[in-house]
Amino acid sequence: MQDGLVMVLCLLLGILLDVGLGEVKKFHPLVGFGNLANAIERRLNTPTASRWTGALAWCLAVLPLVALSLLMLVLAQRFSLWLAPVLHIVLLYFCLGLRSLHEHNAAIATALQAGDLPEARKRTSYIVSRDTQDADEAYLAKASVESVLENGCDAVFATLFWFILLGGAGAVLYRLVNTLDAMWGYRSARFLRFGCVAARIDDFMNWIPARLTACTYAVLGKTRLAWQCWQRQAPGWPSPNAGPVMAAGAGALGLALGGTASYDGITETRPPLGEGDTAKAADILRALRLVEGGAALWCGIALLSVLFLGGVIHA
């Protein structure tokens, strides 16, 4: 029980550190990793590159850093009883994006509520790849809510899941995997073969967290509608993990998301998500509260689980 309680306290403190400080403004480790991944990709992603080349690139980018994290934790555990927990907390802090998610999307909501469409368009362009230059409030609010729901899984819940399972090294492993998927996991001519392994590993590591995230959204929102949208709409999405997360999240909020979106001047019609009202500025804040409430719920469940299991064992 003692070790489990320590890890739950590390979980709580890592979240509080992220909420209190936000992401590192300079020399963020994930930014450095992105630069490393770009250098590896430029060197290995040649016109003749295969999936095996992509697998080698993935190993070169991810495995040394995960091994370094594990080595640091093992050494910290040997030298001091308190140093290892501190390191777990710091690693989780670097991997979480709860406050960052709030800051980026709350800024869009504030601009929309003030009627400042140019500022809202600029802010939205920072977090999505779709075109925003001529977008209206409904389009921008929809893009922001969808980003909150999807990144709530990637930047918050999946990170917490792997931290709970494997500690700080697990959080590091997941965030590196997720970052590589965001960089290489495209079905374009450049990345179709090279990024295939990165995309499949991310799908694997997100499979359980995505469904736990969908359950979290459903529990904290319109439960029945969230479940119905998850079952009906998720199979229509090409991503096996984004579908359940976004469909359940849209249903939980009672919003109609999905539909048309423009990318590089090309309009794409995507499957519907959720059911109900058109998204507005206030709905961005509702989506953020859904994610933040979910993080609090996970912390509560983790703490109660450790206390209950400890009591059962001692009984």
UniProtKB/TrEMBL annotation:
Record keyword ATP-binding present: no
Pathway: Cofactor biosynthesis; adenosylcobalamin biosynthesis
Signal peptide stretch: none
Transmembrane segments: 55-75, 82-101, 155-177, 295-313
Principal location: membrane
Domain of life: Bacteria
Keyword terms: Cell membrane, Cobalamin biosynthesis, Membrane, Transmembrane, Transmembrane helix
Residue stretches in coiled coil: none
Topology versus the membrane: Multi-pass membrane protein
InterPro entries: Cobalamin_biosynth_CobD/CbiB
Compartment annotation: Cell membrane
Keyword Repressor found: no
Family per similarity comment: Belongs to the CobD/CbiB family.
PANTHER family named among the record's database cross-references: COBALAMIN BIOSYNTHESIS PROTEIN CBIB
HAMAP family, per the entry: CobD_CbiB
Function, as annotated: Converts cobyric acid to cobinamide by the addition of aminopropanol on the F carboxylic group.
Protein name according to UniProt: Cobalamin biosynthesis protein CobD
Organism of derivation: Undibacterium hunanense
